[in-house]
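Can you give me the bound-state structure? Components:
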Amino acid sequence: MSPSRTSWRIVLVHTITFKQARQWVPVVLGIGALRGLTDGPWAVVALVAGITAVSLATAVLAWWRTTYADGGTSVVVTRGLLSRSVRTVPLDRVRGVEVEAPPLHRLFGLVRVRVDAAAGAVQGADEELVVDGLPRAEADRLRAHLLARRSAPTPEAPAEPVEQELFRFDDRWLLYAPLVGSYLAVPLAAVGALLRLADELPRRWRPDLGRPDLTDTAVVAGALVAVVVVLVVGSVVGSAVVNWRFRLTRRGGSLVAVRGLVTRRHTELEVDRIRGCTVSEGLGMRWVRAARATALVTGLGDAARRGQLLPLGPRDQAWSVTRLLVEDPGPLRAHPPAARRRRLVRSCAPGVVLVLAGAVLTATAGWWWVPAAGVVLAGLGVPLGLGRYADLGHVAGPRSFSLRSGWLVREQVVLQRRAVVGWQVQQSFFQRRQGVATVVAAVGAGAGGYQALDIGAADVAPFAEAASGPWAGALAR
Amino acid sequence: MHPDPARSPAWTPSRDAIGLWAVEGAVGTLVLALVVTGLEVFLPLPTWLAVLLPALVMAEGVVAIGVRPRLRYRVHRWEVTAEAVYTRTGWLSRTWTLVPVTRIQTVDVTRGALQQLFGLASVAVLTASSQGTVRIPHLDAEVAARVAEDLAHRAELVRDEAT
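Here's the bound-state model for the whole set.
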């Protein structure tokens, strides 16, 4: 196929956003600062007009010099004003195609296509191929073409893939957001930015509020209520912006997730590359039986965001979507008593150390409150250790296996047998004395490895063999 | 005593590995000794610390040169079977790693400066997972080259999707 250009309307988008001209702004500002803007308002108008002209010119040049071509075996993107860059990605390396529509793009009827071609060796921005500014229909054609080779082996007439909606995001699920750490961070970051801005305002524009009276209970209580309201509303709004109208559908051999209020994102995952799922529940989420589900996909860049199957919702929903993709291996088995002992020792140790150090300090300096704090800390360690032990679990089913750990964020991973690319068994000196070991399943997706902490030494080889295949029997004989 | 969680692989690394580990330990101890000497000369240390630090360096030297290399040699084992690569490494803590030949992506042979002095080489077998890497340290250089070639060849023959 001959190379084609993106839509000319992208020039307008890039002119407005100064996409290419951004690097010139410091130069222009520098010139302005040197000359000093003393010539009155006309100089400012001329400057603005000049910058816009530069932006328009660079946007036109960039558009004119950028072409893409999707052939039968690869996709080629050529760009660059002076130094040309040609990036070729073979179609069989394409792991996923994401179509996103930022607000300004939507105004002009355009979208941005990101082709994820995880090459393994290259990391970061190089992993992606971006074609910015395609009309919607052309983007859909390109995506279909890039992902078409999956259905290629069947010689029959390519039937229109059936679309089946798995679920829609229920707006009520947004109410879970205040209990999730990452969403709570949104209003905090916003307030922080606002305070910094207020700090930079000239003094005469700042309202004189006087000093708040901190001894007045009503003032303190009012401030606390205001903080809580800001946190709750901010986190709900933050999660709404990202997850608005989240919809997961199955189309042929792939899963399609659409989400977002301001920027609509359209992510496509190949079901064939999914090796498993994680269901994670933070401390606050467990309280209201909420969870999030993420797919583990081989060779997927930015997997934590793109792999999301359920960004936030009821635990039952997270499990039902997980079971669609991976067979349920059955109820988890508890770890041996030695594991509980080890969790308790770990969580109480800081408190015990503080008590011992405090005993010395009480004798020498009379700091009785140091050992007292140690006793409290050690006491808190008991429920923490028991909780961490209760969250441990592992099980191997006929076609899948599952591991669970974590307390602050409890994460259960369910993996297909074929996901395992290797096993690692770790045993420290103390684990050896207590007859337990940590088993890590190496997986070419997600975090790269998932561990079963402190399982009985005699269970290691049988578990590995049951969870992956006869080859793992080499651990035993 | 509890049973081991996994059996030991069959083969040992080259015996010269003990010498190499001892040299590494000696270099590490030397660096520590230099740091401690610097501290003693330039800082007014209390007497108990001025005595304790050199004693600790001496103890580290004894462990790093005399004890650790031998313990390591007893723990380190490796094995290549028809289906998998299997190793055990460590000295106080131990790590067993098992990777099937079907999932091998790359096989590397490395020879560090010290290794060349002892005529040794290490083999690293890489998979799609960062945690699924098998390292077989300190083999005889010819053995390492032969193992790597054999593994790379077999991986090419049987490779399925490898992820």
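A couple of observations. The interface with chain B takes residues 273, 275, 298-299, 421-429, 432-435, 437, 439-440, 442-445, 448-449, 457-458, 460-461, 464, 469, 471-472, 474-477 of chain A (CB under 8 Å). Residues 420 and 443 of chain A are 5 Å apart (CA to CA).
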